[in-house]
Automatic annotation (TrEMBL):
Name this protein carries in UniProt: SH3 domain-containing protein
Residues annotated as signal peptide: 1-30
Keywords from the named record: Signal
Domain of life: Bacteria
Length: 227
C-alpha cells in the first residue's frame, strides 16, 4: 500500500514561551534550519526583497510565532540576513528576530518541568495544492487478546509517552510520516461538528495547532480509507 506524505513546534509552544522576547545565543544557521519568528514588540518580522533595511522593499509582514525554514544566510555586522519563503514570497529576514524550534522546545521543557525526550510535533501542510493532511485512515487489526487499544504517543516511538488510547475503527487524518513505521496523525473528533482544520491547504508547513488531538501511532494498525 502506498501513501503520500510530506515530512516536516510552534503555535502551542509559541503561546507558552514567546509571550515576550526569548533570548537565545545563536552563532550560525544551517541551510533548512526551522525557526520561529520572535518579534513580540512589533508583532511581525519584515520579509524584505534585499538583505538590508536600507534598500529594496518590504514584501510581507510575517506574524510573531510563525514557523519558517531558512535558506542561505549572509553574515553582517548587525547579524545574519537569511532567505526564507512565506505565503509564496521569497525574501530576506534578519536572524535577530527568530529562534530555533529546538530552543523553544527546550525552553518549554524548563518552564513546565517536563522532558521533551522523544516528543515530536505532527507537521501539517506545506503544499498549496493539497490539503493539510494527505489521507484519512482508520484504526484496524487490534488483537482481541491484546490491550484492545492503539496507543497515541507524543513521538514516533513505543518509548514516547502515551497521550491517549484509540479504539478499533477510530478515524485519523494521516499528516506526517517519521519513516520508521510511525504516522503522525490528527484524531477525528467524537463531535463531527468540530472542524480539525486539515482538509484545506496549510502554508507554510507547521506543527498542528488546531482543536483536535494529535500524536503518533504505529502504521501496523492503521488502514488508509481515503487518499
Amino acid at each position: 500500500m502506498s501513501h503520500r506524505f510530506r515530512l516536516g513546534m510552534a503555535s502551542a509552544l509559541v503561546s507558552l514561551v514567546l509571550g515576550s522576547a526569548l533570548v537565545i545565543e545563536q552563532t550560525a544557521w544551517a541551510y533548512d534550519d526551522q525557526v520561529i519568528v520572535n518579534s513580540p514588540g512589533d508583532g511581525f518580522l519584515a520579509l524584505r526583497s534585499e538583505p538590508t533595511t536600507k534598500g529594496g522593499r518590504r514584501l510581507a509582514k510575517i506574524p510573531h510565532g510563525t514557523t519558517l525554514r531558512l535558506g542561505v544566510c549572509q553574515p553582517t555586522s548587525n547579524g545574519s540576513w537569511c532567505q526564507t519563503s512565506y505565503q509564496g514570497l521569497t525574501g530576506w529576514i534578519l536572524d535577530r528576530y527568530v529562534v530555533s524550534v529546538d530552543a523553544v522546545t527546550a525552553n518549554r521543557s524548563r518552564m513546565t518541568g517536563t522532558t521533551s525526550s522523544g516528543d515530536r510535533p505532527v507537521m501539517v501542510g506545506g503544499d498549496p495544492d493539497f490539503s493539510g493532511c494527505s489521507a484519512f485512515g482508520a484504526v484496524r487489526g487490534l488483537k482481541r487478546d491484546g490491550d484492545g487499544f492503539l496507543a497515541l504517543r507524543s513521538g514516533p516511538s513505543s518509548k514516547a509517552r502515551m497521550i491517549d488510547k484509540l479504539g478499533e475503527g477510530d478515524g485519523v487524518y494521516l499528516c506526517d510520516d517519521a519513516g520508521n513505521g510511525w504516522f503522525g496523525v490528527v484524531v477525528y473528533p467524537p463531535n463531527p461538528m468540530i472542524d480539525c482544520g486539515v482538509n484545506e491547504a496549510i502554508v507554510p508547513k507547521q506543527p498542528y495547532s488546531g482543536p483536535c488531538k494529535t500524536g503518533w501511532v504505529s502504521e501496523n494498525f492503521v488502514e488508509v480509507v481515503a487518499p
